[in-house]
Amino acid sequence: MTAVRFLVADVFTATPGCGNPLAVVPDARGLSTRQMQALAREFGFSETTFVLPPASVASSARVRIFTPRTEVPFAGHPNIGTAVVLAQERGARRRMFGDSFRFEQRAGLVPVRLLRGGGGSGAAELTAPEGLTLGAPLRVAAAAACLGLPAAQVRSRTHAPRVASVGLPFLIVEVASRAALARARGDLAAHAATLPRLGVDAVFAWCRGARAGELHARTFSPLDGIAEDPATGSAAAAAVALLTLAAPAQSARARWRVHQGEDMGRPSRIQGTVEKGGGAILAVRIAGRAVIVMEGRLRALP
Hints:
Layout: E1 3-11, E2 20-25, H1 33-43, E3 48-52, E4 61-66, E5 71-72, H2 76-92, E6 100-105, E7 108-118, E8 121-127, E9 133-137, H3 140-146, E10 154-155, E11 162-165, E12 170-175, H4 178-183, H5 188-198, E13 203-208, E14 214-221, E15 226-229, H6 233-246, E16 252-260, E17 268-277, E18 280-299
Parallel strand pairs: 2-3, 4-6, 12-13, 14-16
Antiparallel strand pairs: 1-2, 1-18, 3-4, 4-5, 6-7, 7-8, 8-18, 9-11, 10-12, 11-12, 13-14, 14-15, 16-17, 17-18
Helix pairs in contact: 3-5
């Protein structure tokens, strides 16, 4: 068996025990795809990343991202967390590093820029690897069933329930209130009946907060073995891009603050910036903090 070194970071937070935990294997050379999947399943987090040498000298690393069930082409908190872990790893070894990374992923090249952290945490901002793509609207009743809510608790004023993606697709659903969001749950049977034909395995539910540009959100993914995700950067990126697209302004630089994880005791904060020009989404960026909470070694599973 090969000993594998790993670190665990809590992402989209500066407080240990909050945010979304991420396992990072900073040197995954020698691991097979099967071993990576087995390790991700062993950790049981919503995602685990494996860092490999890049295919291009212009890139920083190849980063493979696994849920407990499958490999995904892109995700938010794995990119933020991996950048913070690698930056602190290099800093601890007194090596020089720049203020940015270029991660090769299945969805494309993901630029990640380091930001100022604080209190033992780091911070980073990623640019989504793809433009905004939208699926056909879904019936309100079907979306409500996925959330275990009455149809009256799902809204379609800002946008109908629909799949949106900037690298990883999610069903995006607006709910009527913060109270409705708190009552929501991921209904496994409804997910199984609805999501596979849409090409997704998770629902991102949101409602507006008290301030302009503020959202409260929850993500449910029981089909992927994750009852609820504490912070979902890729889904938040797709959602704020969709909301910016729906706004009347033809050109804008929209800033968003997404609160997630509060209903499961792991509060998370995601910052989003969307560039819009000529009525189209030009770029989507997601930022947040991360703090390393654990380090160890384990044996690669067969």
